[in-house]
Design brief:
With 176 residues, the chain is mainly α. The protein has 2 domains: 82 residues, no CATH class; 78 residues, no CATH class. The protein is 39% helix and 0% strand. The protein contains 9 helices and no strands. The protein is elongated.
Length: 176
């Protein structure tokens, strides 16, 4: 995992939340791993050029964020996936969706879902592209957008497992 460009901190990649500091890093140092950068604070030596006020501010902010991070040499690395939750019940329209701070492909997916334009089995059958509309995962109901995202037994299990670590497993979709 790369120190400067990968999203290994809770705030995301350093390049995204400290862009001025990132610009002050030499190109040859951008490939430095997290382990290598944190060892003896080698990341500090990656910064070159004149220290402007924005660079110094972001440098101090990063220093504070890294202050309590300790690598566990005996634990294997683990990747954490970011999940983007949009409040379906609080959604008034597409305006709120486009203002959300998520990648464009996530916005596009939710726009398609909100407008019933995902290419589900039911939609492909309606357009004459396939014979059956049954859900490929559960084979119990037609594969609609609502079924695929909320009603399907597999979707409900995914939602339960995503929400359980945060204590929100009661908010997982129910069969009804």
């Amino acid at each position: 995992m790369r120190f400067w460009t990968d999203a290994w901190l809770p705030d995301g990649a350093i390049s995204s939340f400290a862009p001025n500091l990132f610009k002050a890093v030499g190109r040859r140092r951008l490939g430095r791993t997290v382990k290598d950068a944190l060892t003896n604070r080698r990341w500090v030596r990656d910064i070159s050029g004149a220290p402007t006020a924005p660079v110094l501010y972001e440098y101090a902010d990063l220093w504070v964020k890294l202050e309590n991070i300790q690598l566990q040499p005996l634990e294997p690395d683990r990747f954490v996936w970011r999940a983007y939750f949009i409040g379906w019940t609080n959604m008034v329209g597409a305006k709120e969706l486009w203002r959300a701070a998520v990648p464009p492909k996530v916005k596009f997916f939710f726009w398609l879902a909100l407008h019933g334009r995902l290419w589900t089995a039911e939609r492909r059958k309606r357009h004459g592209l396939q014979l059956q509309a049954a859900c490929a995962l559960s084979d119990q109901h037609d594969e609609t957008t609502d079924h695929l995202l909320c009603s399907c037994v597999y979707a409900r299990e995914v939602w339960f497992r995503l929400l359980q670590p945060f204590g929100f497993h009661g908010a997982a979709p129910q069969q009804t």
